[in-house]
Design goal:
The chain is α/β, with parallel strands linked by helices. Helix content is 51%, strand content 17%. The protein has two domains: 4-236 and 313-320, Spore Coat Polysaccharide Biosynthesis Protein SpsA, Chain A (Alpha-Beta Complex), CATH 3.90.550; 239-309. The structure holds uridine-5'-diphosphate and magnesium ion. Magnesium ion binds at residues 105, 107, 109, 213, 218.
Length: 321
């Protein structure tokens, strides 16, 4: 029984904050609250339940307010529009008052029953972060599995010193020190998996089986996932820039060799079509150099543009507490 182990491992009156970002989750939010409180009630903890309504266009906010009326442990942060899950989580993380936090998806894909296991692992290993690591991906297509796997290979191959754990989402427990560290990372390009890993400290994995969505539908499509992958790669590595430089140099080098070859050929065999060879070599050489320069500039300018605006990560319409 987890309760018994928990009671002996936890100090009383510590506060555990649970953050749940919600976007158009009217179908599942009541069930979610029911499941989460079922588990939370067994914990020897003071519980703070933070729902972040990320600009839902359905009745999620109304449902959350009703939940809030019935349960005073609930805080509802209503964002001014849809900012995306990363910003919604950040809003939650900025407002937690607990000694530790746990992030859950509203669709019950991260099973609330595993909260006690996260806490036990945290207390046992004395880790700063315990992250859920998916052992299986039920209900996902082979295409999604393969693309996800390749993504982790690529990003860990090129990410600069930061090891991003495989098959890990946002489902995790973080202690006070890691929460404080994460709060200091205010960049607007937020690749959370990367940021979670970037802060360092002792992070341990807790393997779990990721369930299919309880109800409603995913907010992700392949374009969104591709964008997320690009965000991760560009935000945590400068290797794409180096690839642009590498190809630029490669093209320039071969154009140079080609140029020498044309000179000798002309000296030996004579001119075939006047001007043709010089033009081709020049065009190829300059294209290589241009690719190199535009690649480097574009990536840097894009990132600087995003960050230089220094916009807040989200706006809050109201906090119901
Ligand atoms: N979510 C959010 N804002 C968004 C998109 C999603 O707060 O713009 C929330 C959503 O309500 C859910 C969690 O993020 O609680 C995960 O979303 P989803 O289930 O669509 O992602 P998936 O599980 O398919 O990766
Ligand atoms: Mg989901």
């Amino acid at each position: 029984m987890p309760d018994k182990t928990l009671s002996s491992t936890l100090q009383k009156r510590e506060t555990l904050s649970i953050i749940i970002p919600c976007y158009n989750e009217e179908d599942v939010i009541d069930l979610c609250h029911q499941e989460v409180t079922k588990v939370a009630d067994t914990l020897p903890y003071h519980i703070e339940l933070i729902y972040v309504n990320d600009g839902s266009k359905d009745t999620t906010l109304e449902k959350l307010c009703a939940i809030r009326e019935a349960d005073k442990r609930v805080v509802v942060i209503n964002l001014s529009r849809n900012f995306g899950k990363e910003a919604a989580m950040t809003a939650g993380i900025d407002h937690v008052t607990g000694d530790a936090l746990i992030i859950l998806d509203a669709d019950l894909q991260d099973p609330p029953e595993l909260i006690p296991d996260l806490i036990i692992k945290w207390k046992e290993t004395d880790a700063d972060v315990v992250y859920g690591q998916r052992t299986t991906r039920i209900g996902e297509t082979w295409f999604k599995k393969i693309t996800a796997k390749s993504f982790y290979h690529i990003i860990n191959f090129i990410a600069n010193r930061v090891e991003i754990p495989k098959n890990t989402g946002d489902f995790r427990l973080m202690n006070k020190r890691s929460i404080d560290a994460l709060r200091q990372l205010r960049e607007s390009h937020r690749f959370m998996k990367g940021l979670f890993a970037w802060i360092g400290y002792k992070q341990v994995a807790m393997p779990y089986c990721r369930a299919p969505r309880a109800a409603g539908s995913t907010k992700w499509n392949y374009a969104g996932l591709l964008n997320l992958a690009m965000e991760g790669i560009a935000g945590f590595s400068t290797v794409p820039l180096k690839i642009a430089s590498f190809f630029g140099l490669l093209i320039s080098f071969f154009s140079f060799l080609f140029g020498i070859f044309i000179i000798f050929k002309t000296m030996i065999v004579g001119v075939e079509v006047p001007g043709w060879s010089t033009l081709t070599v020049m065009i190829a050489f300059l294209s290589g150099l241009q690719l190199l320069s535009i690649g480097i500039l574009g990536e840097y300018v894009g990132r600087i543009f995003g960050e230089a605006k220094k916009r807040p990560l989200y706006f809050i319409e109201h906090i119901y507490k």
